Amino acid sequence: MRIIKSLFSAATAAACALTCLSVSAQTILLVPQDNRPVSLAYTVSTAEHAGYQVLTPPESILSGSNYKGNADRVWSWVEDNISKSDAAILSTDTLIYGGLVDSRKHNESLATLQSRENRIELLHKNNPKIPLYGFGTIMRSPYASNSGVEPYYYGTYGNKIYQISILQDKQDQGTITDKEKAQLTSLKQSVPVEYLQDWFDRRQKNNTINKELIQDVKNNTFTYFCLGHDDSSEYSQSAMESRYLAKDAKGLKSTRYGSFPGADQLALLLIARYYVDSNKLHPTFGVIYPLGRGEETVPSYESQPIGKTIKEHIEAVNGTITDNANPDIMLAINTPLFNTKESGRFENFSMKKQSTIDFVDTIKKYADSNVPVSIVDVYFNNGSDNTLMSLLSENDLLYKVAAYNGWNTASNTIGYAIAQAILAPAMNEQAHKDMLLEQYLDNWAYQANVRKNLYRMESSYPATGNQKISPVIREEMVAELQDFAQKKMGVDPQTVYADFPWDRFFEIHAYVSDTPSYEHILTLAEKQRIAEEEAKKKAEEAAAALESTEQPSQVVDVQWN
After folding, report:
1. In the chain, what are the domain boundaries?
2. What is the residue range of the signal peptide feature (predicted)?
3. Contact criterion met (CB below 8 Å) for 403 and 432
4. Residue 55 and residue 79: Cα distance in Å, rounded?
5. Computed from CA positions of residues 181, 187, 188, 189, in that sequence, does the dihedral angle turn out positive or negative?
6. How far apart are alpha carbons 481 and 82 in whole angstroms?
7. N or C, which terminus of the chain has less Cβ within 10 Å?
8. Element (H, E) at 261
9. Are 275 and 268 in contact (CB under 8 A)?
10. How many CB atoms lie within 10 A of CB 116?
11. Rounded distance, CA 124 to CA 33, Å?
12. What is the secondary structure of 478-497 as a DSSP string?
């Protein structure tokens, strides 16, 4: 077995070289929260790049875009396969409700939910040598939603329910004003009582289950367990529940239990935690920011400063923050001057910005000194900062960093960035490049650039029949992605591909191949350019031919002597 090549400090690397076996000998059983790429495909590919074998349930029984997950069938699969693994990473939302979205929409009885939850303790008792790493969520309180991932009435009444939850949280904390009390009464009267009852009853069941999961941590059922705050805000029903659950978790160390923003990053974060535990590592992290609010930045969709979220994620992998000039991993947090905005906005274009130039210079200094740098790009939500990415490319840093992430919410990005940087040392050069490309294609090419082009095209190429996205737009997405990858990332366009796994513009599944494996598709603009050139050439040829036929024949005057 090969020895793990450590990215960590010399002393840790020396110890690891003596004691750590290759992760290729280890098998992880993974139960994801659903079948989206961030939950399943990207998580699995990162672990496999690091040498792990990953067992996952059949996709047909996981929660998908238009069907529920089957918790009981997933449980049967887990019990049949747990003995084949060295560790298990378990989404309790899938094991108990069927999946993340199912946890928000289910109509299961509390007795059924508790019966499934009790199987976790039995799983541990029957397999005491296999560490269980679990993650669940505190049900979110979104300000609005009409995409089918909340109860059907949320599209109409979601914002009012959200406002009710804010005011009730304030009431619970004793900070509500008389004006807000009147507003709360009015809002409650404006939402049908059966909808409010449905929403709060489900939350009460889920909260009861979360209390029992915390008790499982205290009973040593889990090696580590965390609850993600899915799309949280400062005041909400989610924030209130989190506050009370913290009392239930009192006394638990941060290396055993965590509760912090985010959900989609948790499976990969716990794989990294298993890597740390199994190799007896205690990684240290440095943190750098560009000009701006830095660690005090409160990102959109989250309820606390980013510095606190980073600290909590580092504790989740049994790491610590250090001021040492040579940490095991340097986190480069790309925060805005003021507030985070959406990556699709007009202002997200590449520009010469001195604060970002200075930030990239610092990244380059650490990379050139062989300090692994993981870039946490949270300048925008849901996509990369084009200014940062252009500078990384100009400075030849795209494939010299340990990891890069800039997707969805700040906590999602933080979790992936920490996890991938921890796992990177176990990857060979090609696997590491493939991991980076996966993120660049998804976060930079698609989310920050291609997606907004597709939104503009949608009215010209509408979906018909049962289609949600027209074939023209599907093909154009791949074409623009391949074109972007070739021009910006220096890769063969036939080595990259993508599709819409949930038939919506929100996310893609980016595929990366080590060899040319996909058809090279031309963009509509390129097809039009070629057609215009061909038409112009034909017109010029026709004009030349016509001109030659219209030339008068020369008459030669012959004179006889």
Report:
1. 25-142+203-280, 282-426, 450-537
2. 1-25
3. no
4. 12
5. positive
6. 39
7. C
8. strand 257-261
9. no
10. 19
11. 20
12. HHHHHHHIIIII---GGGEE
The pairing of strands 509-512 and 496-499 is: antiparallel
| Residue 384 identity (one-letter amino acid) | S
Q: Which residues contact 358 (CB under 8 A, 6 or more apart)?
A: 290, 291
**C-alpha gyration radius of the chain:** 27
DSSP per position, 324-372: -SS-SEEEEEE--SS--EETTSTT-S----HHHHHHHHHHHHHHHTT--
User: In degrees rounded to 5, what are phi and psi of residue 347?
Assistant: -70, -5
Determine contact, residues 439/404, Cβ cutoff 8 Å.
yes
Does the pTM surpass 0.90? The reply is: yes
pLDDT at 13: 43
List 133's β-bridge partners, or say none.
89, 224
Identify the segments of the chain with pLDDT beneath 50.
Answer: 1-22, 555, 558, 560-561
Q: 462 is written with which tokens? A: 């509408």
Query: Both tokens of residue 481?
Result: 């992605």
3-state secondary structure of 534: helix
CATH class of 25-142+203-280: alpha beta
**Structural contact between residues 105 and 184, judged by C-beta atoms closer than 8 angstroms:** no
pLDDT at 25: 63
Q: Residue 430 is encoded by which pair of tokens? A: 């090609």
Fold of 282-426: Rossmann fold (3.40.50)
Helix (H) or strand (E) holding 13: helix 10-19
Question: Residue 302: which region, alpha, beta or left (left: phi > 0; alpha: psi -120 to 50)?
Answer: beta
Q: What's residue 109's pLDDT?
A: 98
The two domains 25-142+203-280 and 282-426 share their CATH topology (first three levels equal): yes
For 469-501, b/e burial (b = at least 16 CB within 10 A) is bbeebbbbbbbbbbbbbbebbebebbbbbbebb
Instruction: Tell me the one-letter amino acid at 308.
Output: K
Separation of alpha carbons 266 and 263, rounded Å: 6
Residue 550: is it exposed, middle or buried by C-beta count within 10 angstroms (0-12/13-18/19+)?
exposed
From the list 264, 260, 232, the residue with the least C-alpha distance to 246 is 260
What is the C-alpha to C-alpha distance for residues 278 and 130, in angstroms, rounded to an integer?
12
10 Å Cβ neighbour count for 186? Answer: 10
96-114 as b/e: b if 16+ CB within 10 A? bbbbbbbbbbbebeeebbe
Please state whether beta strands 27-31 and 87-91 pair in parallel, antiparallel, or not at all (unpaired).
parallel
Question: Scanning the structure block, which residue is given the tokens 């959109």?
Answer: 300
Q: What is the pLDDT of residue 553?
A: 55
| Amino acid identity, position 391 | L
**Cβ atoms of 122 and 214 closer than 8 Å:** no
* Six-digit token string for 38: 């961030």
